[in-house]
Amino acid sequence: MSTFGKIIGWLLGLGIVVGGGIYLLGSREPDIPPGNGEPWLTEHEAYEDQTAHTGMDGGAFVVPGLRIRDPRDVSATEGHTPAHYALNNGTFETLQSGEVVYRRLADGMLRRSVWANDGDGRLKFVDESGCVARNIYAFDGYYAGSDGIWDESVPRLDTDTRPVPGQKYRKEDNPTEQYLEFEETQDGQFTVLRRYPSLDHSESYRLEPFGRGAYALEKKEDPEIRAYIAVLPDGKTVLFSQAGERVKFVR
Fold first, then answer.
1. What is the C-alpha to C-alpha distance for residues 232 and 251, in angstroms, rounded to an integer?
2. For the chain, what is the domain count?
């Protein structure tokens, strides 16, 4: 082989090596932030944001600079408190209607089913409707008090209580005004009817379980309308939260 041919062959080989190295670097998974780093979103919120998923690690979706946790995994985790996964990358805002919501600074979108830091080190629970919820157990079993702030004095729920199908859970302070009635589907999931007898009006919701007796609700006729319930361990009490209002139902 001539000297010229050897040079051409050497250059081609070098190009292959360099090109392969660039390809490997470009296809490498992004570095994963620390396990309790910022920012955190739930899996449901990631889908709402249409965040591009680029990899998987330990059940958490991973994108550059962002780690996403499914709230069902959070609910199942022992030994962690809201302080481990509360959001710090947004701000609370009071709407003209009086509800308090939490918006992510990066895109202004509302957060749902999360704990968030209010800037003074206090953690508030935002339910599935996107509003601060009060006097209710959150999706992870911890309790939000009258101001929506995590009440560390209340023990975490350790049971996953299911609603009783076919039973009417009536509003505690006005049993004739409204009630909830659950129906179990063939796949073991639930739907719930929120009924207002005096108004001849009802709302039907699909339920998505978080664990620890907590469920996200999505209105069948309008998926943008959401709510949240917590079924207490006695199996006779359901706490319903939507748009800043909490209603207690009993059977």
1. 12
2. 1
